[in-house]
Amino acid sequence: MSDGKHTAYTPGPLAVNERGSICRENKNGYQEPVKLVGAWIEGAWEGDEEALANATLYAAAPELLEALQALSAVAEMTTFSDQYPSECEMARSAILRATGEGA
User: Fold this and answer.
1) Cα dihedral sign for 79, 82, 88, 89?
2) Alpha helix locations (H) across 1-103?
């Protein structure tokens, strides 16, 4: 997030390297794997299309969250939330879940 708050998750941008690891560029400019739940062996999922698709989605998650938060804020300042209440509630619920504030 770009609002200066500390986050418990690894902030983006993240990327998937050639071995299928989700990585973030460190302060020295090197790609380093991010922490994930479960066992992770570098390259263990090579050739697994589902695992690579999941890794790609996970790598995009910080940017997706930031974009959804921005859109949600705009929706609340306009009549959009009145016109599309269920979609705005879905967005709020997803944001709460992603930030660990909801179930």
Assistant:
1) positive
2) 49-77, 80-83, 85-98
Separation of alpha carbons 51 and 21, rounded Å: 10
Write out pLDDT tens, residues 4-55.
454 566 777 788 887 777 888 888 888 888 776 555 556 655 666 767 777 7
Half-sphere exposure of 32 (CA within 13 A, CB side): 8
Q: Which residues pair with 22 in a beta bridge?
A: 16
Cis-peptide, bond into residue 85, ω within 30° of zero: no
Grouping H, G, I as helix, E, B as strand and the rest as coil, residue 71 is helix
Q: Would you say the pTM of this structure is higher than 0.85?
A: no
CB 59 within 8 A of CB 17: no
